[in-house]
Amino acid sequence: MTINKLLVVIIIIFIKFGGCEKVFKSVPVVFKIYENESVLLPCYIQDNETVARVKWYKNNRLLGDTLDQHTLLPSRMYMHRNYSLQIDSLRAHDTADYTCEVIRPEPLGPIKQSHSIEVQCSPTVRTIPEEGFLEVRKGEYVDIGCEASGTPKPTIEWRKNGEAMALLEHRSRIRFRAEHRLLAGVYECIADNSVGDPVKAAIRVIIQDAPVVSAVRTFVHTAIGLRAALQARLDFAAPPAKTAWFRDGRPVKTDDRIIIMGHENSHQLIFRTVRKSDLGNYTFRAENKLGMADVSFKLTGVPNVASFKVDPSLNKATSTSFTLIWEVDSYSTIIEYNLWIRPYYGSRSPIDPDSVSTVGPAYFWSKIVVPGDSIDGPIHSASYTVRGLTPSTVYEATVTSRNRFGWSKTSAVLHFATEPGVGRTLPVTIDYADITPTLEEPESEQPENITQAHVFERLNEMPMSDSGAREKLNVIVISFLICSIIWLS
């Protein structure tokens, strides 16, 4: 075949199948349009073209044919005289590719032009599981998800208990191991495609585990004849827990005076009128098939923990003295206070020379006995001026209180500082009873009284070379023995 004949064949093929000739005046279009609106899909042919037949397709399905009366367009569709297709009241399922096929007389072949419709639909979402609830045991796997639909395709974000979750991608499913009860909660997926408002769906995840209980106050101060209440909180229990109150390992017996109340997660043991026999230790217990939890209480007449008051107008400081003020709750008269004072050391650590340690070489407490008052309460105030302190020195103080039921727990530590001064003196403390104070080193961090056995023990442990310290301690021991003899006589 010669080259000329080959060119003729190629030209005929191009003409027959609509090769490079410009037949359509319209161009392919992607229509992004909202529901319930109308759209016109063009199929404009050049004026000099002869058209034998026109067909419209939705994807690969025939919609209409100009020569086939049996092929009827849906009621919402209409083909104009220029062969353009109009679709009214668009629905989500109208999203598709639409093709106009123009069939021309022989030897010309058919030509096609396609348009696309994307009906913009606001998103919808369906949870997995559908009921929006999932309960698993601790250690099992949690598998939840949200199936979102809409045009364009929605993106999904997740929140847990209202807080955004830091996920690396927009995912429709989440799977994790239920290693801790804190992983339980309300998981919310949010689907958004910028069409209308975002939609949300929630899945409540419950992780079964042993109960967790707590209490705001476990040390409850009261007095004979008053009303008192022990209050516990059931923070977590899945499955639900059985609850009970115990005293010394035995269930608490209730009557008209002692009652048990429970509302939602709050549980109370109420004493309408406290008797002396009611004072003691109590336990609130919650138990389910996965475990048990307790919280212990003490109902007592012992004073509450004292609290120091910080007021620059009252906390008068000099170079060698400082006035301390504190308050304590007690329904009974306060017999006495133990005020403990010691310097606050900032010595260097032998391991790291740049670090600071609060453990000094002479980290001794000094106890001051402060008399109580004759007030029945419930609020008792006291103040004491500590004298003989070292100028420009930081001290720390703590206090305990005693009424007829016993000693309170130690208060929080208060730090204070003396004013700058001239010279240095050893810290000396004098109480109201004019008793000579003794520097004492507690066996533990909590202040406690030194005994005669402790004095002899420390005397025996002291190195022989430390004659000055031994001499001072001998004076203390002799004074201690003289006071004991006088008291016994």
TrEMBL record:
One of its GO terms (biological process) is homophilic cell adhesion via plasma membrane adhesion molecules. Transmembrane segments: none annotated. Keywords: Immunoglobulin domain, Repeat, Signal. GO terms for cellular component: axon; neuronal cell body; plasma membrane. InterPro entries: Cell_Adh-Cytoskel_Orgn, FN3_dom, FN3_sf, Ig-like_dom, Ig-like_dom_sf, Ig-like_fold, Ig_I-set, Ig_sub. It comes from the Eukaryota. GO terms for molecular function: axon guidance receptor activity. Residues 1-20 form the signal peptide. Residues 35-118, 123-204, 211-300 form the Ig-like domain. Gene3D superfamilies: Immunoglobulins. Residues 308-421 form the Fibronectin type-III domain. This is Neurotrimin-like isoform X1. The gene is LOC106125702.
